[in-house]
Every structure is written in structure tokens, then in C-alpha cells.
Amino acid sequence: MVNSTSFLLLLSLLTFVPSCLCSTKFGGYLYPQFYDYSCPRAQEIVKSILANAVANEPRIAASLLRLHFHDCFVKGCDASILLDSSGSITSEKGSNPNRNSARGFEVIDEIKSTLEKECPHTVSCADILALSARDSTVLTGGPSWEVPLGRRDSRGASIKGSNNNIAAPNNTFQTILTKFNLQGLDIVDLVALSGSHTIGNSRCTSFRQMLYSQTGNAKVEFTLDQYYAAELRNLCPRSGGDQNLFVLDYVTPTKFDNNYFKNLLAYKGLLSSDEVLLSKNQESAELVKQYAENNDLFFQQFAKSMIKMGNISPLTGPRGEIRKNCRKINT
Ligand code: HEM
User: Are residues 117 and 229 in the same domain?
Assistant: First the structure.
């Protein structure tokens, strides 16, 4: 029997329950209001520094969106990617997916040092990455979502995890899907999140094998438009030019929209990992077509999948720490 006092207590408790109590693998909870009392201006500060950074260099939005992904797939969303090598820590920045590629660390440093002045030892680097990924999406024209917060920062990094868990552009469709499944993400998340390639750049070295066959004959992969491939070969020769940059979405390179999916249907996806979504699996091909047709559907699913990705094994409660400097663990 519930008496009236306990009923009222229950009711008042429910009133204060945050709108998204996102449960995590380890039973910790993230929720958007986490800093409402401890650092009420946190979100505003992240957004304004990011807006300046993106105005200076539009690509930074893409780079920060990718950093959150590369963080979450390695030991969870715990800012392990931000640690520099020191002592027993080997930085993830030197892993195959990140070396000469992951960027945006200086912007995270600027946000962190401003937040340390505003509310010392309060806002985690992992949450800064999650907020930056959302704001980067919004600033480039994509959807918005409430970011569940309360992640804490790791006291270690895993270069092995970074090499193994993050999909490579030449992985097969099945390998890529398996890597997502291992993080609790499904085929819908895979296709929607790959839509991030609507902004940002890739180096020649990441897609060269799409342009030249294994044997060295100039035989283009059958999934790539011949004219598009010929253009790409101009600046991405068989050897040399590894670091030359190409836009991932040649139609609207700095705008977050569904052109990535339209490009795939026109056989103008840049990475092999993009093309296989259309060519190697019926279910993902169907999703590519749906997102190409319906921008709203893509935006809705992208926001959902980003929240799901942001919930991968966060450190909560007494686990981890709030780093003072995102590049090193506290002493
Ligand atoms: C599905 C598996 C994926 C593979 C194989 C993959 C691979 C790549 C590669 C090779 C690049 C170019 C890197 C370079 O050459 O420097 C890239 C760029 C990028 N990726 Fe992915 N990616 C995947 C999924 C994702 C996801 C899930 C996100 C975000 C949620 C994402 C966001 C980005 C962004 C925004 C860029 C551009 C970065 C910049 O311009 O700095 N990618 N990705």
C-alpha cells in the first residue's frame, strides 16, 4: 500500500528526474542537466569557443566530430584519445587511424582552460568532446540533440584499442559492422553515423586503393564513377602525395546534409568504407537510399545514433577523474 506521504515523495522525486537518464554498461547515468548547478555556463562556453574556431577554419568541425568517435570506440567515451605520451602512457594519437590525421586538440585545450577558470575541476574532457561533436554538427547545418553528460576522464590510453577497434577505410563491410556491433551499435547506427562524412577531408593515402587495383593496373574499382576517379587520380597518384587532402562530400564539403548519401548513389563516395554501405549489404543499401531521399530521417537517426555512441562505457561516479589538463592525467 502506498500512503499519501510516500506518494507525494515519489511524485516530487519524479519531477526532478532529468529528461534523459541514459543508462550505461556499468550502471552509471549520464544526463543533460549534469552541470546545471556546478557549471551553468559550461555549454555556452563550449559553443562560443567552437563557433570562433569553426569561423576561422570550417574543417575543425569535422575534425572534432571525428575525435569523439575515435574516443568512444577505445575504452569508451573517456577522453583517452586526448592524452599525450608520458610515463606508462602511450598516446592513442600515434595509432594507425589517428597518426597524421586526428586533429582539433588545440581547440579542446582552449575550451578546457576557459572552463577551468570558470569552474575549476568540474567539467570532464570527455564531456567537452561530446559537446563539441554536437556543436560541430549544429554549426555546419546538421541536427541538434541534448547531450547526456557526466562522463569522467580515463587515467590511461590504449593504442592497441585504437588500432583494433576503429574501422579502417579498407576494411570489409562485415569487419566494419562487427566493429560497430562490438560497441553496441547496429547497422542503422553504422549507416547514419557514416553520414558524418558529409563534412571534412580525407588524405589520399586513405582511399588510394579505390583508384588503382592491387596489381598496379589503373583499373578502377567498379563501384566508383569513372570520371570522378579520373579527377581524383590527378592529385592522388599511384605513389606520392599521401597527405594530399580531398573533400569527403564534393557537392557541399562544409555543410552537414544528406549529400553524402546522394553521392554514394552516384558512385561518388570517396572511401571504400563508404562505398561498401551501398554495394555489399542489402539492408545498409536500403538505408543509404532512405537517407538520400529524406534529409529529416537522416538527421533524426544521426542524433539518436550520436547519443548512443556517446553512451559507450563512460566512467561515472568514483571511476576515472576530472583532468585539469586534457593532455595529461592528474598528479
Ligand atoms: C564506418 C567506419 C568509418 C571509417 C572506416 C572511417 C574512416 C575515415 C577516414 C579514413 C577518414 C579520413 C582520414 C584521413 O585521411 O586523415 C575519415 C574522416 C572523417 N570521419 Fe570517418 N570513418 C568511419 C566512421 C566515422 C564516424 C562514425 C564518424 C563520426 C561519428 C566519422 C567522422 C569523420 C569525419 C567528420 C571525418 C573528417 C575529419 C577531418 O576532416 O578532419 N567517421 N573517416
Answer: no
